[in-house]
Every structure is written in structure tokens, then in C-alpha cells.
Description:
The chain contains seven helices and ten strands.
Amino acid sequence: MIVCPRCNQENTDVARFCLACGHALDAQPAGAREERKVVTVLFADLVGFTSRSERLDPEDVRALLSPYYSHLREELERHGGTVEKFIGDAVMALFGAPVAHEDDPERAVRAALAIRDWVLEQEEELQVRIAVNTGEVLVSLDARPSEGEGMAAGDVVNTTARLQAAAPVNGVLVGKTTFHATEHVIEYREAEPVTAKGKAEPTPVWVAVQARARFGVDLFEAGRAQLIGRERELDALRDALARARSQPSVQLVTLIGVPGIGKSRLVWELLQIVEADPDLIVWRQGRSLP
């Protein structure tokens, strides 16, 4: 017997769709799959929109919110985030689940700054409060956010919601872990700790001002320990550099690996080779989010 997760109707084992509501049953998992992950949570909420919507026709409310929803989803997904849910004029997004990147905290803060800047450019006089925080959550691997199913649960979600309520108007407030993970690429100013409901101690926070220039920051303090076990990969980089200098052609080397495996460290080692060369070699660095 298969129980429909949507309406709790009991169905036969061979049923592919619920007999009561038509919900698809053939893809139901045998059991809930969950995983602990460190993610970055983003909350954004329009300021004063509830009272403003009381004076508007429902069609006007929809006309105002539709481009807001659309742009926020586009901006969040462009930076690698996943929109978990929209609640009225608020949005919650995750960076690091279901897909993780090495720089999820930075992606989240950059997305927040992009949303803030877009809101400031609008003629509708929109105002927004945004908070970004990083921590451990329990992720439901089978959740479908597009159908309103929650993906993550943990204290960091509740804390981020509290920080969002305390954020300055048209400001981005971040927590301690996010701050330390991004302070070399994002300019911050200190803010008064937030006394959040349910927290024994005030939560330290910072206001994100703007992104710093990216030149060289991916390699910042990269080489503190001796590189071990990457001789073959480093030789491939040396050979590509030699071919680029001796041949009139561009050399492309792609480094692929899971977060934390040492891709940035390899690039840092290549930079040391360039720096040690007696000839003048111009180093240019670019970056594009997938």
C-alpha cells in the first residue's frame, strides 16, 4: 500500500498516481534521505509592503510583486543559489544545497548586494532588508522547493530570519561565519550585535557595503604549507606555460575537483613559478560564476 504524501490517500502498490488527488506516486522514495551540510542562508523581505498592499488592488499587488519575484529568482540562481520558498513578499534561498561550491558564502553576499542595488534602481520606491548567515543544517535530499517543500532545517535558518528583521533598510546584514568567510572579498562595516529572540547572547553582525576588486584574492594566503602529491598536475601547468611562451597559440588547462581539493593552491603554485621567472610575465586573472 502506497500512501500519498500530499493527501494521505491509500493507494495500491501498482498505482502510479494518487486515486484522490492525482499526485505522482511512481517516484516516491523508499525512505527520507537526509544529509548534514554547511550552507549559507539568505533572507530578503520588502519593507512596509504589507501596509502598502492594503491600499492597492490585488491586480496592482501582483503587478508589483511579479517582476520582484522574477528578478530575485534570476539573481539568486545566477549566483548559484536555490530559492527554497517565497512567503508573501519575502524570499528564502540556500547556497550550498543541493549543489555546493567552494565560495557559497561569497556567492550569497554578492547576490544580496545585487538585489539591494536592483531595488535601489527601481522607480516604485521599493525598500528591502536582507540577511545572510552560514551554518549547519539538515538537508532533505528529496525535497522539491518548486512545489513548496522545505529543504533545510536548523538553527541557522531561524537566526537568519531574525537577522533579516534587524537589518537596516536597503542593507545587507551578515553573521559571524559568513563575515569571516568573505571579509577578504567584501567590504564591511561593523554593526551593533543583534539581540535575537531565543538567543542567550547577542549575535555579532556586520553590514555588507560592496564587493572588493577581485584581482589576486583567489590566491590570497594560499600557500602556507608544502604542496604534496600534486607533482604531476604541477608539471602539466609548467608545460602549458612553456608552450604558451614558445608557441603563438593559447593554452587552456581546466582544473576540476570537489571543493577543498586544492585547485586554488595549484594556481598559486603556478603564480610562484611566474614570479620567480627572470623574464617579465604579465598575469591576468578573471572569474565567472557558473
